[in-house]
Amino acid sequence: MSVVLERKIVGTGRPLVVLHGFLGMGDNWATHARIWAELGFEVHLVDQRNHGRSPHTASHSYAEMVEDAVAYAEAHFGHGPVAWLGHSMGGKVAMELAARYPSWVERMVVVDIAPRAYPPHHQFILDAMRRLNLAELGSRTEADRALEADLPDWGIRQFLLKNLEWNDDKQLAWKCNLPVLEASMDRIGKPLGPLDQFVGAVLFVRGLASNYIRDEDWEGILQHFPSAQLESIAGAGHWVHAEQPKAFQEAVNSFLVG
Prior knowledge:
Strands 1-3-2-4-5-8-9 form a seven-stranded mixed beta sheet, with helices on both faces. The protein has a two-stranded antiparallel ribbon with strand order 6-7. It is built from eleven helices and nine strands. It has two domains: 7-118 and 189-257, Alpha/Beta hydrolase fold, catalytic domain (Rossmann fold), CATH 3.40.50.1820; 123-183, no CATH class. By secondary structure, it is of the alpha/beta class.
């Protein structure tokens, strides 16, 4: 059963739905959304289930996230097609949506994720989040210091700290549904089905310092998305849009505008 997704809408014009990655939220894309709005897009920054301000549920699968996204599109646009952009987990959602509901997809950007399987690899981050004693912390700065021993990468910590909010008891709490997400790691890494295919316009964007889309993945990508194009961005890892924002915009904007 689908859930109603929270969202922030930026601009007016052609719809563009942005699907964030694991442990992210729509607001991660606010800077890019303002640029796309200037290009004539109405950008929908959604929080996927168990993330951000959207409902927490007892399960977390791609089938459910696809149904959430389609229900969102039906409620906001009435009919398709519209443009989609997904990063990492959100890219897998977009891929499955395109294969199952092609009439909803006018074009699609998939950021640093391939349709193949990925082994669970976020456990060290989830462990660090779970070990954090939020009841003893009085600020995000204190949370940052407490995470530093387990997560020395400043960028990862800042990304995670956006998940903190003050609850009704005036204590810091995670916005994301951490127990369910941790229990769903195997599902999040699963591949597309062998017969899943979308023949429309798709742009894959990878960071050359990331191993999420390897050269040897391209043949498999074309089996699922025979019209796919690829842009590779130097100096960027998995968070391509945050690490090289100008190059990312240059890579995707002409494709989105069409």
